[in-house]
Amino acid sequence: MNVRKRIFSIWSVLLVLIVSIAVVVPGCDGGQGTIEVKATIDGSPWTGALDYTLAPASGSPISGTDVPGSHSADAGDWTCSYDGGGPDGATLVGIATSETQSLAEGGTITFTLNFEIPEPDASITFVSWSIDGQQVDPGQYTVYPPTTIDTEYDVFVAGNSSEWVTVNATFKLPKHFLGEANSQSWHVANAPGSVSTSPPAQDLTHECTVNGVPTPVCVTFQVWKCEPMYFDVHISFKIRKDTTYRTNINWLGYKGSGPDDILFDTDSLGAGVWGNSNIITSGCVYVEGDVDPTNDCSGNSSTLNIIYDYLGSPP
């Protein structure tokens, strides 16, 4: 009987000890701490809508939709990832102090998403040739009056989409006449609608040059056989940064009846304008403070071979 009492007493003491240890020693899951999420723009604090995810090593993630944000979370390793939003026109350059940090019980860690506004960087890309507004592949085409030869380019300036920037551009069209006559007769039209953009640019102006010389409207000039002639247009406009502007240029009007939203036009039907011409085009853009001049020019486009049948008509 005494033995049983002693055993019972021993088990009672052990039970009390086990309960005491369970109360004093934390469980394996640990306690909680605080995760702060902040953002900067060009080194200055920024607040606003920003989507991010906080993911633990195990367990459920935490989502946030604006900064600054504060979250209670279990102790352990946490990783912050950027999902979208943030300052307009800015680029995420990193998460400080690290994308993954360790949260201690009762402690605080801070993820800071750092954004920067890109410096101005203008670029231009040749898109296509068009004949009478329809895109065409490189190759040979027979055209009849009236016909317009167009080109399309994409112009883009990186930066804050809330800012506008002035772009100066030069587009070139070397024309190599190979026809039966000794020359073709052309004149400068430079009509108001001959250069357009989508979306519409602001303060758009343009000036034509022939062989690099500014040439007034209605001046007539000859394009001699086997002697390349350079038709150029110099354009200035204001566009919104971080937006692509499709730029359409109506270069050549094979019409003979006067300008109609074109830059250069044949001046008559019968003045030796029958002929075969090879044409290419290129463009360059210029923006103040441009950080990367390597993408400022498009390089030469594909070649069109145009046969102009001024006495014929489309089949």
Binned strand content: over 45%
Cα Rg? 35 Å
Helical residues, percent: under 10%
**What's the multimeric state?**
single chain
Rounded mean pLDDT score: 86
- The computed structural class is mainly beta
The topology string of helices and strands comes to: HEEEEEEEEEEEEEEEEEEEEEEEEE
Uncertain stretches of 5 or more adjacent residues: 13-29
Euclidean distance between termini CA atoms: 123 Å
Tally of helical runs: 1
Report the major sheet.
8 strands, mixed
Number of strands: 25
Task: Based on Cα principal axes, name the global outline.
Answer: elongated
Describe the structure.
The chain has 315 residues and is mainly beta. 7% of the residues lie in helices and 55% in strands. It has 1 helix and 25 strands. The protein has one helix spanning 2-24, and strands at 32-41, 44-46, 48-56, 62-67, 69-74, 76-85, 91-96, 100-103, 108-116, 121-131, 134-136, 139-143, 147-158, 164-177, 183-188, 195-198, 202-210, 213-214, 220-224, 229-240, 245-254, 264-266, 275-279, 282-286, 304-308. Strands 10, 11, 13, 15, 16, 19, 21 and 22 form an 8-stranded mixed β-sheet that branches. Strands 12, 14, 17, 18, 20, 23, 24 and 25 form an 8-stranded mixed β-sheet that branches. Strands 1, 2, 5, 7 and 9 form a 5-stranded mixed β-sheet that branches. A hairpin with a 2-residue loop joins strand 17 (202-210) and strand 18. The longest helix is centred in the first third of the chain and has 23 residues, at 2-24. It is elongated, with a radius of gyration of 35 Å. Mean pLDDT is 86; it is low at 13-29.
